[in-house]
Write a structure and sequence with these properties.
- The complex is a heterodimer of chains A (304) and B (266).
- Chain A is mainly α and 304 residues long.
- Chain A folds into two domains: 42 residues; 223 residues, MetI-like fold, CATH 1.10.3720.10.
- The longest helix of chain A has 50 residues.
- The two termini of chain A are 49 Å apart.
- Chain B is of the alpha/beta class and 266 residues long.
- Chain B has one domain: Rossmann fold.
- Chain B is globular and about 55 Å long.
- The chains are: A mainly alpha (304), B alpha/beta (266).
- Chains A and B meet through helix 7 and helix 8 of A and helix 3, helix 4 and helix 7 of B.
- Bound molecules: adenosine-5'-triphosphate and magnesium ion.
- The site of adenosine-5'-triphosphate has 14 residues of chain B, from helix 2.
Chain lengths: 304, 266
C-alpha cells in the first residue's frame, strides 16, 4: 500500500514536469523560427516595395549607386564588388593562415602548446570588430603607405587584411575540430605504411576532414560578407565599381550603416534601398550556407 | 643493403633481445627475447592486457606514436637495431607493415587506398605499372575478383571483411618484408576470418607474418610458431613460452601455458 503510493505520487509529478519542459522547448524553438521568418518576411516585403519604384533591371545593370544624390542611380554592383573584394582579400589571409594553424594544432603541436594556443586564438576572436576597424585605419593603412604611396586613407586592402586576421580564429578553430574528429585509426594506418608526420597530416587527415574544413571556410566567408564595422571604418564610403584595392569603396554593409545613421525619412525611396541592399546581402549568405550544407553532405565520410 | 647481404643466411626476420616497454613509469612488458623466423607465421597469444599489442607495435616502432612509451633492449631487423640512434622510424615502418584490429581503410577509393603507400614512398611508376601493382596487391589479398569492377568506389563502402583485406592489400603494396597483424579477424565473421587465414598461408611464401590473436583455434591452425605471454603480479607482461605451434599446443613445457590453452584462465 505504502509502496504503491510512494510510486504513484512522483510519477504523476514527473509526467507534469516533463510535459512542462517539453512545452518550454517547443516554445523556445518556435520563437527562434518565428523571429527568423519575421525578419525574412519584412525583408522581402520592403524589398518588393523598393522594386515597385525601381526596376530590377536597373538594379542589376546600372553601374552606379547614388540613391542619396540629386541624380539617383540604383545599380547594386558597386556595393557588391566592394563586398566581394574586401571579403576575397580577407579570405586570402584567413584561409591559409587558419588552415596552417589548424593543421599545426591538430597534428603537430604537443598537448601543452595546444592548451596555450587555442585560448589565445579565442581571445583573437573576442576582440570587438570596431577595434579591428580602427587598427586597420590608424595602423595598417599608414604602414602599407610605406610600400604603396598611392594608397588612399580608406581602402579595401587594409580593411580586407585586418578582416582576414579577424577570421583566422574561425577557420583555425572549426578546422581544428574537423581534423581532430578524424579517427586515430587513420593516423595509425598512415604511419604504419611509412608516412611521415607531414604526409599523414596533408595526404590523409586533411582530405578526411575536408567537409568540415570547407564548412569552416564558407562560414568565414559568410562572416566576411556580413562584416560591418571594419569595412565601414577603414574601406571608405565611396560606391564605385572597381577591383582596385587601394581606393575607397563602399560595401553593402557600409551602405546600410550610412543610411541607418543618416536622417533618411521613413517610407522614402532611400529608406527602401536599405532593404533592397539587405536582401541582396541575405541572398549571398543564404547561397553560401546552402553551398556549405551541400558540401558537408556530399563529402562527409561515415566512420563507425 | 650490405647488412642484408651479410645476413642472407640469417633465418630470422626479427630478433628481440631483452626488450622491455614502458608507458611512463609503468613497465608493460619485461625482458622479452624472441626470434621470429622468416617466411613463417608466428602467433602471439595470452590474456588481455599481457602486452601482446605492445610487443607487436614495438617491432615497427608504432609505439613512438604514444608520447609516454619507451623501449629498452634491442629489436634487430636484418641484424640492425631499429631503436639505435639515427634510425628513422618511417623507414622501419616501410619495411615492416601493419594490419590493425579494426579495418581502417582511408576514405578514398579502393585504388587510392592501395596506391597510397607506393605514392608516399616516392616510387616513380607509370600509370600501367600502378595499375599492375594495384591488381597484384589486391590479388595478393584475395580481394581482386570482388572489387575489380569498382576500383573507384570508396574503400569504406566495402564489407568489414573486404575492408580488412583491402587493408592487407594496402600493406602489401609497399612490398614489406614483415607484416604485423593485431587481431586482424576479431571484427570479422567466421567466413571472412577463414578467408584471411587462408590468405596468411599464401602470404607466408613471400612475407614473414606476426599475428596477435585471442582465438586459440586460430593460433593453433594458422601459425607455425606460438609465443605465450602472461602478466605477473605487477601487471607486467612476460614471455612465458615460445616454440613451434604444435609443441605449444600439444606438449607445453610450462604448466601456465597448459592452463591457458586448455581455457582455464584468461
Ligand atoms: N597507450 C598506452 N598508454 C598507457 N598504457 C598502455 C597503453 N597501451 C597499453 N597500455 C598498457 O599496457 C599493458 C599492455 O597492453 P596491450 O594493449 O599491449 O595488451 P594486449 O595484450 O594487447 O591486450 P588485449 O588482448 O586486450 O589487446 C596494459 O596494462 C595496458 O593498460
Ligand atoms: Mg591488444
Amino acid at each position: 500500500m505504502a509502496v504503491t503510493e510512494l510510486r504513484r505520487q512522483p510519477s504523476l509529478l514527473r509526467a507534469a514536469f516533463e510535459r512542462f519542459i517539453q512545452v518550454l522547448l517547443v516554445f523556445a524553438a518556435a520563437i527562434s523560427i518565428l523571429t527568423t521568418a519575421g525578419i525574412v518576411f519584412s525583408l522581402v516585403f520592403e524589398t518588393i516595395a523598393f522594386f515597385s519604384e525601381v526596376s530590377i533591371v536597373e538594379f542589376l545593370t546600372e553601374t552606379e549607386w547614388t540613391p542619396l544624390f540629386s541624380i539617383k542611380k540604383y545599380g547594386i554592383w558597386p556595393l557588391v564588388t566592394a563586398t566581394v573584394l574586401t571579403s576575397a582579400i580577407a579570405m586570402m589571409v584567413a584561409v591559409p593562415l587558419g588552415l596552417i594553424a589548424a593543421i599545426f594544432l591538430s597534428e603537430f603541436a604537443s598537448d601543452n602548446i595546444r592548451r596555450t594556443v587555442k585560448p589565445l586564438l579565442e581571445i583573437l576572436a573576442g576582440i570587438p570588430t570596431v577595434v579591428y576597424g580602427y587598427f586597420a585605419l590608424t595602423t595598417i593603412t599608414p604602414f602599407l603607405k610605406n610600400f604603396i604611396p598611392t594608397l588612399s586613407i580608406f581602402n579595401s586592402l587594409s580593411a580586407g587584411l585586418v578582416m582576414g586576421v579577424m577570421l583566422i580564429p574561425f577557420v583555425a578553430s572549426l578546422s581544428e575540430d574537423a581534423l581532430s574528429a578524424v579517427p586515430n585509426s587513420l593516423r595509425e594506418a598512415a604511419y604504419g605504411l611509412g608516412s611521415t608526420r607531414f604526409e599523414v597530416a596533408v595526404r590523409v587527415i586533411t582530405p578526411a576532414a575536408i567537409s568540415g574544413i570547407v564548412a569552416s571556410i564558407v562560414l568565414a566567408f559568410s562572416r566576411a560578407i556580413g562584416e560591418t564595422m571594419i569595412v565601414a571604418i577603414a574601406a571608405g564610403q565611396n560606391p564605385r565599381l572597381t577591383f582596385d584595392p587601394t581606393v575607397p569603396v563602399m560595401t553593402m554593409t557600409s551602405y546600410i550603416v550610412q543610411v541607418s545613421l543618416g536622417d533618411t525619412p521613413y517610407g522614402s525611396l532611400s529608406y527602401y534601398t536599405l532593404y533592397a541592399v539587405g536582401f541582396t546581402l541575405f541572398i549571398f549568405t543564404f547561397i553560401l550556407n546552402i553551398f556549405s550544407y551541400w558540401m558537408v553532405r556530399k563529402f562527409r565520410e561515415v566512420y563507425d | 643493403m650490405t647488412t642484408h647481404d651479410l645476413e642472407y643466411d640469417n633465418p630470422n626476420a626479427i630478433e628481440a633481445h631483452n626488450m622491455s616497454v614502458y608507458y611512463g613509469s609503468f613497465r608493460a612488458v619485461k625482458d622479452v627475447s624472441l626470434a621470429i623466423e622468416k617466411n613463417r607465421i608466428t602467433a602471439l597469444i595470452g590474456p588481455s592486457g599481457c602486452g601482446k599489442s605492445t610487443v607487436l607495435r614495438s617491432f615497427n616502432r608504432m609505439n613512438d606514436l604514444v608520447p609516454s612509451a619507451r623501449v629498452e633492449g634491442q629489436v634487430l631487423f636484418h641484424g640492425e637495431n631499429i631503436y639505435a640512434p639515427g634510425v628513422d622510424p618511417v623507414n622501419v615502418r616501410r619495411r615492416i607493415g601493419m594490419v590493425f584490429q579494426k579495418p581502417n581503410p582511408f576514405p578514398k577509393s579502393i585504388y587510392e587506398n592501395v596506391i597510397y603507400g607506393p605514392r608516399i614512398n616516392g616510387w616513380k611508376l607509370s600509370r600501367r605499372e600502378m595499375d599492375e601493382l594495384v591488381e597484384r596487391s589486391l590479388r595478393g589479398a584475395a580481394l581482386w575478383d570482388e572489387v575489380k569492377d569498382k576500383l573507384n568506389q570508396n574503400g569504406l563502402s566495402l564489407s568489414g571483411g573486404q575492408q580488412q583485406r583491402l587493408c592487407i592489400a594496402r600493406a602489401l603494396a609497399v612490398e614489406p618484408e614483415v607484416i604485423l597483424m593485431d587481431e586482424p579477424c576479431s571484427a570479422l565473421d567466421p567466413i571472412s576470418t577463414l578467408k584471411i587465414e587462408e590468405l596468411m598461408f599464401e602470404l607466408r611464401q613471400h612475407y614473414t607474418i606476426i599475428i596477435v590473436t585471442h582465438n586459440m583455434q586460430q593460433a593453433s591452425r594458422a601459425s607455425d610458431y606460438t609465443a605465450f605471454f602472461l602478466m605477473d603480479s605487477d601487471r607486467t607482461g612476460q614471455l612465458v613460452e615460445y616454440g613451434s605451434t604444435s609443441q605449444i599446443f600439444q606438449n607445453p613445457k610450462d604448466e601456465r601455458t597448459e592452463q591457458y590453452i586448455s581455457g582455464q584462465f584468461g
